[in-house]
Amino acid sequence: MCMCTALLLFTLLAAASGVARYYVPVLSLLAEALGTLVLVGWCCQKSASFIRRRLFGRILDSAGKAVLITGCDTGFGNLLTRKLSTKGYHVYAGCLFSNGGGAQELASISNVTILQLDVTKEDEIDAAYEVVKRSLGHNVLWAVVSNAGTLNVG
């Protein structure tokens, strides 16, 4: 039962029992306040939804776009690779261990290319560059996400 209905029912019962003059003004005020809160909440939710759609609702066309992501073995890089591949982007997933479990799971996705990429090794960076350059064709490398974690001491 809705709170407003319960308040209305209580008001009617109170009026029938003769104590209405004490409770009706208070219950009426409570019902009005509750109704106002519900209406304001609904308006805020609709306004926020409208603004979110207008500002952030634009869907980018993924046709012909590729993204290079480093650190795709696990975590954020792995999840972002999955998400962007479902949106139609070709994803070059740089993995520290290209034969590891996370990389092998990503390899089963058709528009994902696994790259052996330790960002601290120049030869692996050069090899990844050549693979991307050779396989892009008419596509464009639209974004690079530098997600690989490195530790420099000293």
Automatic annotation (TrEMBL):
The chain crosses the membrane at residues 26-44. GO terms for molecular function: oxidoreductase activity. GO terms for biological process: steroid metabolic process. It comes from Ixodes ricinus (Common tick). Gene3D superfamilies: NAD(P)-binding Rossmann-like Domain. SUPFAM superfamilies: NAD(P)-binding Rossmann-fold domains. InterPro entries: NAD(P)-bd_dom_sf, SDR_fam. Pfam families: adh_short. Residues 1-18 form the signal peptide. This is Putative 17beta-hydroxysteroid dehydrogenase type 2. Keywords: Membrane, Signal, Transmembrane, Transmembrane helix.
